[in-house]
Amino acid sequence: MNINAHKLLGFSLLVALPFLGGVTECGGPPEPPPEPEPELCLSDADCGAGDYCDMDECLSPCGPDAICPAVCYGACEPAPGPELCMSDADCGAFERCNADACMAPPCDADGVAHLTVCYGVCEPEPPACEPVACDIACERFARDERGCEICGCEPPPPVCDDVLCDLYCEGGFATDELGCPICACEPPPPPPMCEEVLCDLYCEDGFATDERGCAICACAPPPPTRTSCGGFAGLTCAPDEWCDYDADVPACGAADHLGTCRPRPEACIEIYAPVCGCDGSSYANDCFAHAAGVDTWAGGLCAPPEPGR
């Protein structure tokens, strides 16, 4: 072979090299596609059908430089399928292999399934409990991890005292280690993780909110107009309202001061903090006075009328 033949062979190999051995024009195999961003969730209801919310890792929708409330998000993952088995030995403790359910078997490494073999499903095994034979008088026996009764008494439920304190808690009273309410308020739930509203919409009264309290791309309805009451003309409110006078005006709108009509409360907490109403009657607390349609002007019971008056 002469020199020109060697040059022609070398040039042919250079041309064919990118097509041999899976080598690409970029000098190597193509990079795998990036993993998709996880779908964040707070519960299984936030995920699609067949998925569940995996809370093992604390995720956040905000970037590393953003300020976000300390709320942990999970990621939507495919729900695990049933655990297949051939015998009880393939299942965990207190489980049995239900061979009545013929499930699709797993595939070989080459992707071929053994369609002639039926696989069962691991299911909880009902415990074979023995009767409790011990000289103990129990209202209810305790149970072990299998749910079987053992020679021990189930602790009775706690006997909780009524909470008697002058404290209003919107979310209810907190509880102690026994589950009994105490004179302290339950801490409010963490604020929702709301995304910024980005839409070309001007709202004079602000954006509307969804069921979580987060702003959405819609305008909030205008606030209801408040009517005045009292004053020189003696303006009255609707039958389901009461006249609210500012705290810095004379008692019950004296000197012709105006008040504002507000809706009467539908329910009141049974807390005894007596007040004197503008009608001269005493009420258990402010709420009961407002439910009766009157404002209050002093704390404590109203003074009894003087004799002869």
Provide a concise account of the structure shown.
The chain is mainly beta. The protein is built from 2 helices and 18 strands.
Q: Would you list the SSEs in sequence order as H and E?
A: HEEEEEEEEEEEEEEEEEHE
> Which residue ranges are poorly predicted, with pLDDT under 50 across at least 5 consecutive positions?
2-11, 13-28
Q: What's the average pLDDT?
A: 78
At CATH's second level, what is the architecture of the domain at 228-299? 2-Layer Sandwich
| Portion in helices | under 10%
**Terminal Cα span:** 139 Å
Main beta sheet: 3 strands, antiparallel
How are the strands of the largest sheet arranged?
A: 1-3-2
How many alpha or pi helices?
2
Oligomer: single chain
Could you tell me the CATH topology label of the domain at 228-299: Wheat Germ Agglutinin (Isolectin 2), domain 1
Count of beta strands: 18
Category from helices, strands and their pairing? mainly beta
Write structural notes for this entry.
With 309 residues, this protein is mainly β. Among the domains are: 41 residues, no CATH class; 28 residues, no CATH class; 72 residues, Wheat Germ Agglutinin (Isolectin 2), domain 1 (2-Layer Sandwich), CATH 3.30.60. It has two helices and 18 strands. A three-stranded antiparallel beta sheet has the order 1-3-2, with no helix packed on it. It is flat and about 95 Å long. The N terminus is likely disordered.
Any key phrases for this structure?
3-stranded antiparallel β-sheet, single chain, flat, Wheat Germ Agglutinin (Isolectin 2), domain 1, disordered N terminus, 309 residues, mainly beta
